[in-house]
């Protein structure tokens, strides 16, 4: 019995020793700071200048010290002479257990702005680090007091001692901050450890790995492949090619792997172990990998896993309005998911390496990444510091499958002397680009006009790959113009797609201004989403245009045959992975409680098209399909996410409105002409018109004035009134305004005689009033065709309507809306500048059927529009305070509420709308010069 007990004790001790050895063979991470913007650890802090300076106090780490109330704010373009130059002193104590004495301890800083001097127990940990966006570490084993308290001191200079770094980072077009803004932690590893690894996991399963170690006890390397959750798949048979100067080159091949790409971001865990001569594990690390192969074929394209890619990308800053450059993984996930929701497949790190967690999210959710070092125009980074920065970038990020290219800076900041340095540290030998340059195999031109996309210059054999195009500002750019650009980019063989500028408005909450949001005028209002992720209209335009399911434009009318033509614009996904639903809908009247009723719903069988293939599908038409108001098609991807919902009006506006407008009711209508007015009275409504022009002057319902007046004015019409006719019956009164026939057509110098413009009012006994306006449909080069009224903005509370929505449109940004019943409350948002409540209330709205304007004190009205393809103009958006960019401030008609047949395009920060493509052109064609356009409305007050 005693022997059995002894054997059990020995067995337990042996198992414990094995478990202990296993644990000891791994690296432990001990955070000295918090892990992100939402989890800070207080350190002692001293600011040299500015707010809360000249005394020791506390600060949360990681953070930008401006957001903690210290120092002063600067934007990169601020005058150097007035730029803040404070430094900060940090102190923090930590314990180093006695058990660490035989370990290798390093202190890691993920990011410090800008120059960092680090001391442990009063001694320098290493050379001063320069550069804000790069991870650095020091070996501090010999500086620690084991079993005792240790003092960490960091001096952070906001302004670098290296002028080329200042120019690259602090003169750039973005916010500049100071502080330890990314996490700080200790790495505790065995003495015999793997310093780092560089992995090249190919699409064919081949894995080449550089294993860096200085351990003299290490005699072999072992590798294990597991799934993303850590479940072991196989022990890998390793070929150790060589060990030279502390680096092993190891090769192996995994079987039956699934490749990584944005559509199927398959990830694995690669365990790498170094063993001693007794095959005991000295150190074990896990790295997440994805199997994929990247090639750039000159005169052809960028290939990933053998597929030529069209990059649907956006530029992104690492930024949060409350915490500046200090972010979190949750924020990274939220932003990456929004990119995926827009059907994007790529993101460029502008203009510096991001937080590690953002790259991890790109790996797991599936986004191609261009990783970039921070430079800015001339002068370029000096070669010595550039080499250090490239090493720090590549060594940290080399193993992320999402990264497919390196960018050696931005817009002439490239230092060509260090292009070759990437290869020194990158086992995958990914290619290097110079954004904004014709370099090597690519032309990454920025903000080219639409016509330049034909690529007919001396660089015509280069891959057209703009790393910035359609520079957003306020509501311009991004979605506006993208349809024209993408039609060329998709069909141009040498186009590899491109990247929009940029993802989010970079507005910072100023702690020196009561948390007022500051976007530096028009410098940082460039986003598709607002500072907190608010979706602007272009979000949905991009979502439709970049949908991997491309459906050819079509209309539904009585000849509808149920056939839709489509193209599979996925790169790796067959359409059998996508599902689609069809809905036939009936909408309520303005007074209805239920906005929509589904008449019929069915699954749509899509053809099993391979990527880049074209085909068609047929929608089953229910017996009552022609009684529907609209038809919706919704595509769902293999992960259950909506790709997009396309909507199509089925019934014409006259048919829908005639079925809900009720002219019945007892009463009489009375007309009286006095002085210069025509007064028409029904049961409870009194209308006042101008006797000279027929213009509506006043509407009074009982004792309440409904302030719709001064209309209809026919836009861009200069003719004089020839006659005003009044016809009266017991049931209605008609007022007809006839204009002179002679007119000078806009765009033409000759005077011709055309058909007369006509305004016709019909006031019914129940108070309803019809309005029919006929005007010439000549080509219009400058202004609007339509009619307008006045209505004071301060009297507006909201709007409910049947039409496209919920966002406004521009001529070159029509996509992204949906046809159904919408309801928006009034707001005075200036896109990208103030309010940030979306959709914006004011603007042009397409495909109007009816609209209920909700006025204050019950002074609103309903208008039914029976003319197809009519735009409702609702008020006029306020211009931004920094209105130096007329390119993105389109002109609106006079008046407040208009019904128009054409709307303007909107430009970008650098382009007028007409240079972004045909849809942005000012010229509109309405038929022959003698054709008449009719706008047919009914008002219910």
TrEMBL record:
Limits of the Glycoside hydrolase family 2 immunoglobulin-like beta-sandwich domain: 203-292
Cellular component (GO) terms are: beta-galactosidase complex
The EC designation for this entry is 3.2.1.23
Taxonomy, superkingdom = Bacteria
Annotated signal sequence range: 1-21
* Cofactor names: Ca(2+)
GO MF: beta-galactosidase activity; carbohydrate binding
In what residue span(s) does the Glycosyl hydrolases family 2 sugar binding domain sit?
58-188
Q: Does the record bear Hydrolase in its keywords?
A: yes
SUPFAM superfamilies, from UniProt?
(Trans)glycosidases, beta-Galactosidase/glucuronidase domain, Galactose mutarotase-like, Galactose-binding domain-like
**Annotated Glycoside hydrolase family 2 catalytic domain residues:** 298-514
Residues in Beta galactosidase small chain/ domain copies: 683-857
Annotated catalysed reactions: Hydrolysis of terminal non-reducing beta-D-galactose residues in beta-D-galactosides
- Listed GO biological process terms: lactose catabolic process
Keywords in alphabetical order: Calcium, Glycosidase, Hydrolase, Signal
- Sorted alphabetically, which PANTHER family does this protein's record hold? BETA-GALACTOSIDASE (PTHR46323:SF2)
Family the entry assigns: Belongs to the glycosyl hydrolase 2 family.
Self-association state and partner proteins as the record states: Monomer.
Q: List the protein's name.
A: beta-galactosidase
């Amino acid at each position: 019995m005693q022997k059995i007990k002894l054997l059990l004790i020995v067995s337990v001790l042996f198992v414990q020793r094995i478990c202990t050895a296993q644990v000891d063979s791994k690296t432990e991470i001990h955070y000295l700071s918090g892990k992100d913007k939402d989890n800070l650890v207080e350190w002692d802090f001293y600011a040299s200048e500015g707010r809360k300076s000249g005394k020791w106090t506390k600060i949360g780490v990681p953070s930008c010290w401006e957001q903690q109330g210290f120092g002063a704010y600067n934007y990169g373009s601020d005058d150097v002479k007035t730029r803040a130059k404070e430094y900060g002193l940090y102190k923090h104590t930590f314990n180093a257990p006695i058990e660490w004495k035989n370990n290798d301890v390093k202190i890691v800083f993920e990011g410090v702005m800008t120059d960092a001097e680090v001391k442990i127990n009063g001694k320098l940990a290493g050379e001063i680090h320069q550069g804000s966006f790069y991870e650095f570490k020091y070996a501090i084993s010999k500086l620690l007091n084991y079993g005792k308290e240790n003092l960490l001191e960091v001096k952070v200079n906001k302004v670098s001692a290296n002028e080329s770094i200042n120019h690259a980072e602090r003169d750039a077009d973005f916010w500049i901050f100071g502080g330890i803004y990314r996490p700080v932690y200790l790495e505790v590893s065995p003495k015999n450890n793997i310093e780092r690894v560089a992995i090249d996991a190919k699409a064919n399963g081949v894995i080449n790995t550089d294993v860096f170690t200085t351990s003299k006890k290490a005699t072999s390397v072992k590798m294990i492949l597991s799934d993303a959750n850590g479940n072991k798949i196989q022990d890998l048979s390793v070929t150790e090619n060589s060990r030279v100067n502390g680096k092993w080159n190891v090769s192996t091949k995994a079987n039956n792997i699934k490749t990584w790409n944005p559509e199927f971001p398959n990830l694995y865990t690669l365990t790498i172990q170094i063993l001693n001569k007794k095959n005991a594990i000295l150190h074990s690390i896990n790295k997440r990998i994805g199997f994929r192969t990247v090639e750039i074929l000159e005169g052809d394209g960028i290939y990933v896993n053998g597929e030529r890619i069209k990059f649907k990308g956006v530029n992104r800053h690492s930024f949060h309005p409350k915490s500046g450059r200090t972010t979190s993984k949750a924020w990274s996930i939220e932003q990456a998911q929004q990119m995926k929701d827009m059907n994007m497949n790529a993101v460029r790190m502008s203009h510096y390496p991001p937080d590690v967690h953002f790259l991890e999210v790109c790996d797991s959710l599936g986004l191609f990444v261009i990783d970039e070092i921070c430079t800015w125009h001339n002068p370029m980074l000096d070669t010595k510091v550039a080499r250090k920065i490239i090493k720090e970038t590549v060594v940290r990020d080399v193993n992320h499958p999402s990264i497919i290219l390196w960018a050696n800076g931005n817009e002439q900041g490239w230092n060509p002397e260090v292009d070759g340095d990437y290869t020194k540290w990158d086992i995958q030998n990914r290619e290097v680009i110079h954004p904004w340059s014709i370099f090597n195999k690519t032309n990454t031109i920025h903000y080219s006009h639409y016509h330049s996309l034909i690529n007919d210059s001396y660089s015509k054999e280069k891959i057209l790959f703009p790393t910035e195009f359609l520079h957003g500002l306020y509501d311009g750019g991004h979605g506006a113009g993208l349809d024209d650009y993408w039609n060329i980019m998709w069909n141009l063989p040498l186009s590899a797609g491109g990247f929009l500028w940029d993802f989010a408005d970079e507005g910072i909450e100023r702690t020196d201004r009561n948390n007022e949001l500051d976007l530096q005028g028009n410098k940082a209002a460039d986003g598709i989403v607002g500072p907190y992720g608010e979706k602007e209209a272009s979000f949905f335009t991009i979502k439709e245009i970049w949908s991997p399911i491309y459906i050819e434009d079509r209309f539904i009318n009585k000849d509808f045959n149920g056939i839709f033509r489509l193209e599979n614009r996925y790169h790796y996904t067959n359409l059998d992975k996508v599902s689609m639903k069809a809905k036939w809908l009936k909408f309520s009247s303005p007074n209805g409680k239920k906005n929509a009723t589904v008449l019929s719903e069915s699954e749509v069988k899509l053809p099993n098209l391979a990527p880049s293939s074209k085909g068609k599908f047929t929608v089953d038409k229910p017996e009552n399909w022609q009684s529907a108001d609209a038809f919706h098609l919704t595509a769902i991807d293999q992960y259950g996410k909506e790709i997009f919902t396309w909507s199509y009006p089925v019934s014409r506006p006259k048919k829908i409105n005639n079925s809900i407008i009720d002219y019945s009711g007892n009463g009489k209508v009375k007309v009286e002409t006095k002085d210069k007015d025509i007064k028409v009275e029904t049961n409870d409504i009194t209308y006042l018109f101008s006797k000279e022009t027929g213009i509506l002057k006043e509407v009074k319902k009982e004792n309440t004035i409904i302030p719709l007046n001064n209309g209809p004015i026919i836009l861009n019409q200069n003719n004089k009134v020839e006659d005003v006719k009044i016809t009266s019956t017991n049931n209605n009164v008609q007022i007809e305004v006839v204009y002179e026939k002679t007119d000078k057509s806009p765009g033409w110098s000759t005077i011709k005689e055309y058909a007369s413009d006509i305004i016709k009012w019909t006031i019914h006994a129940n108070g309803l009033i019809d309005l029919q306006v006929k005007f010439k449909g000549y080509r219009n080069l400058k202004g609007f065709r339509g009619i307008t009224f006045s209505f004071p903005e301060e009297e507006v509370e909201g709007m409910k309507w049947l039409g496209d929505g919920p966002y406004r449109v521009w001529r070159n940004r029509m996509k992204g809306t949906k046809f159904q019943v919408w309801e928006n409350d009034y707001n005075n948002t200036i896109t990208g500048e103030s309010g940030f409540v979306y959709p914006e209330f004011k603007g042009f709205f397409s495909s109007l059927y009816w609209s209920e304007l909700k006025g204050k004190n019950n002074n609103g009205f309903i208008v039914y529009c029976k003319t197809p393809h009519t735009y409702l103009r609702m008020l006029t958006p306020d211009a931004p305070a920094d209105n130096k960019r007329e390119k993105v401030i389109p002109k609106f008609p006079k008046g407040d509420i208009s019904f128009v047949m054409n709307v303007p395009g909107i430009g970008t920060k650098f382009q007028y709308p007409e240079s972004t493509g045909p849809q942005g052109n000012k010229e509109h064609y309405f038929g022959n010069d003698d054709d008449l356009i009719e706008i047919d409305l009914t008002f219910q007050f």
